[in-house]
Write a structure and sequence with these properties.
The protein is α/β, with parallel strands linked by helices. The protein has one domain: Spore Coat Polysaccharide Biosynthesis Protein SpsA, Chain A (Alpha-Beta Complex). It has 6 helices and 11 strands. The strands form 3 sheets. It has a 7-stranded mixed beta sheet, sandwiched between helices. Strands 2-3 form a two-stranded antiparallel sheet. A two-stranded antiparallel sheet has the order 8-9. Helix 1 crosses helix 3. It starts with a strand and ends with a helix. The structure holds cytidine-5'-triphosphate (CTP) and magnesium ion. The site of cytidine-5'-triphosphate (CTP) has 22 residues, from strand 1 and helix 2.
């Protein structure tokens, strides 16, 4: 079985509030998207990496890495799940149903190769697959309006990160079945909707998603610390 990567990179980065989508902001001398792709290339396990890019994106063609021989471009969609599905379709002539696909956010540039190998080693004998996740340090409350209804049992609550690793055929079916459903904010949730039970694999806390302006400085700190 082969390994493929799909990188959704077609968001506008509204919460970042910058002059361009956050994946094109500079981080340690390169764009966030380049940093992310370099980590995936460095792992040296993927037959190809499909990057979903918005059709109105003027930045991607200018980036040297867009012509790398392991990198394929797919057209981004309206929601993240649409972009991921488009990425999957872009490799359909090459990928087999039983091949593994790792879906990884463009906005997570601090992913380590160690985490990629940890995910693959933990799940490659699994039937369904799973995701990197982190437990929560904070106590979590169930709230309605401004009223606390209860406290969640933290031992059962994990925060979903990426990469998320699933079989090509199963993931494509799940995302197609979930099309138009806004509750699908990650790949695992599409499989959960079909009654499947993806696994969690404990990830690293430095694998942050750049979401708000202060996250860029934090990502820079983590990249330096990882050297
Ligand atoms: N993404 C995508 N296609 C979309 C929406 C999001 O490929 N239609 C990608 C983003 O580029 C990002 C990842 O999905 O790499 C995670 O999404 P998020 O952090 O929400 O990024 P944005 O949607 O760009 O940010 P915001 O929600 O603040 O607008
Ligand atoms: Mg978003």
């Amino acid at each position: 079985t082969k390994f493929w990567a799909v990188v959704p990179a077609a968001g506008v980065g509204k919460r970042m509030n910058a002059d361009r989508p956050k994946q094109y902001l500079l981080l340690a001398g390169k764009t966030v998207l380049e940093q992310t792709l370099l980590r995936l290339l460095q792992a040296d396990v993927f037959s190809a990496i499909s990057v979903a890019i918005s059709v109105e994106d003027p930045y991607w063609p200018e980036m040297g890495i867009s012509s790398h021989d392991k990198i394929i471009t797919a057209a981004g969609g309206k929601e993240r799940a649409d972009s991921v599905l488009s990425g999957l379709k872009s490799i359909r002539a090459m990928a087999l149903d039983e091949d593994w696909v790792l879906v990884h956010d463009a906005a997570r540039p601090c992913l380590t190769t160690a985490d990629i190998y940890h995910l693959i080693d933990s799940l490659c004998d699994d039937d369904v697959g799973g995701i990197l996740a982190l437990s929560s340090h904070d106590t979590l409350k169930n709230v309605q309006g401004k009223n606390i209804l209860g406290t969640l049992d933290r031992s059962h609550i994990w925060r979903a990160l990426t990469p998320q690793m699933f079989r090509y055929g199963m993931l494509k079916n799940a995302l197609e079945a979930a099309e138009g459903n806004f509750a699908i904010t990650d790949e695992a949730s599409a499989l959960e909707m079909l009654g499947l039970r993806p696994k969690i694999v404990e990830g690293r806390p430095d694998n942050i998603k750049i979401t708000r302006p202060e996250d860029l400085a934090l990502a820079q700190f983590y990249l330096e610390q990882q050297q």
